[in-house]
Design brief:
9 helices; two-stranded antiparallel sheet; 213 residues; 21% strand; alpha/beta; Rossmann fold
Amino acid sequence: MTTAIIGVGNIGATVARQLAAGGENLLIASQSKETADTLAAELGSNVSSTTVDDAIARSDSVILAVWFNVLKDIVSSDAAELVGKVIIDPSNNLKPDAEGNFVSANPEGVSAGEQIAAALPATAKYVKAFGALPAELLTSASGRTPERAVLFYATDDDEAAATAERLITAAGFAPVKAGGVADTRRIEVFGDLHAMGGLDGRLLTVAEARAKI
């Protein structure tokens, strides 16, 4: 199985490092080919860099670790290549307010995940994952002992759930399903199951996480 990671910013690069260390085969792509090439060379023989279109075409699952508006553009422009694939979305849709604080840019009552899931081809398999922790906690909490920290995911699709669980485990976390697409708001920023929302920076065990669902 091959996973494409589109975007090698804070989240994308962190997840790439963790999945490479976990033995996953990766194709990474970025607007900056030099950045993707450098990261691939750092991560070893199971990671290659390529173009966005090629990474999507050659992968079984795609992590779209880019800004929300860029993600929407990829979903539109590469729709034919996304057919039948597992699409993993860590996005949060934010904007600054008049005071410079970040607030939700989503329409009232609609999550970023619901918008992306609705825009995908009908046969694409959507899952929200890798966005419930900021990059610094993804880095510091990976492989925690004696009990792994939980990383939530949400999907309506069984294949997407199995893929998310495999990748989350490879990244050094314990996967816990928060629900379906309608529940994605819970694991986005400001949601009750997000580290920067209701959890206020807390990392949960599996038992604690299941008690909150």
